[in-house]
Amino acid sequence: xxxxxxxxxxxxxxxxxxxxxxxxxxxxxxxxxxxxxxxxxxxxxxxxxxxxxxxxxxxxxxxxxxxxxxxxxxxxxxxxxxxxxxxxxxxxxxxxxxxxxxxxxxxxxxxxxxxxxxxxxxxxxxxxxxxxxxxxxxxxxxxxxxxxxxxxxxxxxxxxxxxxxxxxxxxxxxxxxxxxxxxxxxxxxxxxxxxxxxxxxxxxxxxxxxxxxxxxxxxxxxxxxxxxxxxxxxxxxxxxx
Length: 241
Ligand code: ZN
Description:
- 32% of the residues lie in helices and 23% in strands.
- The protein is an alpha/beta fold.
- Strand 1, helix 1 and strand 2 (28-31) form a beta-alpha-beta unit.
- Zinc ion (ZN) is lined by residues 8, 10, 34, 59, 61, 146, 148.
């Protein structure tokens, strides 16, 4: 099965549409959470992903926008954006977000937003955190988001290694090479100093390829200003941080 891995779209419809235009034919689309929060177009992004038949899990922003849960843990600008989104979305859209599952499994893959220990909140930035999730995973492959930076961790013989990620490079998925944790990075708000949308293409029989897609950042920024989102959130898109 060929799968598009998208995460942390963060209501950035321009970035999402650029990625969808760049996608080859895939069997499924999996979204690792934070579909809303930060960006200008939460409603349109929810609709677009629904129209594409995407399988979504919940992120901390999705939950905060839907129910207010965890808002007190957000910094000021994130909370301001979440409250704006909450006021823009319909009751039906909020109900859809509130009902998103914390984890989903398809074939031999489990996906979630943060980690298996704390699906909404834990950041997997390093090998020890990756090992904690991989060691309790029922499947040999896991996919997460949340950090907004593409990453690949491999657990072989009790040792977890982080692999350096290069765009357009493929990494094999053979079961003999141990358990694997993939983070495709963020479509709508990358934070690895590359403003292009980050995503990945998974072939469940062979491997994963990380991709970057340029989009019209200025167009998203104009929409954000028009909708009175905080300046800090507008400006960070241009530098990818
Ligand atoms: Zn996020």
